[in-house]
Amino acid sequence: MNGFSFDLSGRTALITGASSGLGARFGRLLAGSGANVALGARRADRLAALAGEIGDKACAVQMDVAREADIIAGFDAAEAAFGATVDTVIANAGIDGAGMIAEMPEDEIEQTLNVNLKGAILTAREGARRMMAAGVPNGRIVMIASITAFEPSPGLVAYSASKAGVVQAGRSMAREWARRGISINTISPGYIRTAINDAWFQTEAGQKHIARFPRKRLMGEEGLDAVLLFLCSDAAEFVTGTDFVLDDGQTL
Length: 252
Fold this sequence. Notes:
Elements: E1 12-16, H1 21-32, E2 36-41, H2 44-54, E3 58-62, H3 68-82, E4 88-91, H4 106-134, E5 139-144, H5 157-176, E6 182-189, H6 198-202, H7 204-211, H8 225-232, E7 243-246
Parallel strand pairs: 1-2, 1-4, 2-3, 4-5, 5-6, 6-7
Helix pairs in contact: 3-4, 4-5
C-alpha cells in the first residue's frame, strides 16, 4: 500500500475571509504544511499583521468577495507575489446575517447573499478559470458552508439559505469541472466558539443552546484542521462534489 501525505509544499493557496477567525487559522495551517498562502480579506491591517506573523510563505491581499473586480485583483496579486498559478482555493469569507427575517431590511438580506453565496461562487470560479487556463492537473477548491444549510435555523434565514446554496453550488461546479483536473468540495461546520459568537454563548439562552447538543459542548477551531488539509492535498485525488459535515454530532 502506498503511503499518503498532507504535505502541501509546492502549492499556492488563496484563502478568503483570512483576517480573523477560521480564515486566519486556515492561513497558519496551510503555510505550516508547506503551501504559499495569499491571505484575502477587507481588513488590510489585520492581514498585514497575520502575514508578518507567518513569514515569507504568506502575503496579504485586500479584497471584497462581493465584488468580482476585487476577486480578480486578489488572484492577480497572489500569483504575482509567488510567481505561480493559485492551485488551491479556500472560499471562507462570510457574514452571519443574523436577525428575524420578518424584520430584516432588504439590504441586509442582499449583503448576506452577496458575500456568502455570490462571493463564494465567484471566488471558486475565478480560481477554476485560472487552473484550467494553466493546465493545473490537481486543483483543489474548498468552500465553507454550515450545518444550518440542512436544519431550520430561526434568526438565520438569509445565512442558512446562503450556506445551502454553497453546498449545492459546490456539487454542481464539481460536476462541471470533473474532467478538468479540479476537485471541489464543501465543509459544513457545526457551531464553533469564536470571537464573533462567544458573547452569545455566555448568555442563558446560549447555554441552553449548547445543552441541546448531544455532547453538550461547542467545537474548537481545530476541529476542521485534518479534513481541510486532506481536501487540499494530493491524498484527496478521488474526492470531489462531497460535503463534509464536521459538527461533533450537533445535528444528531
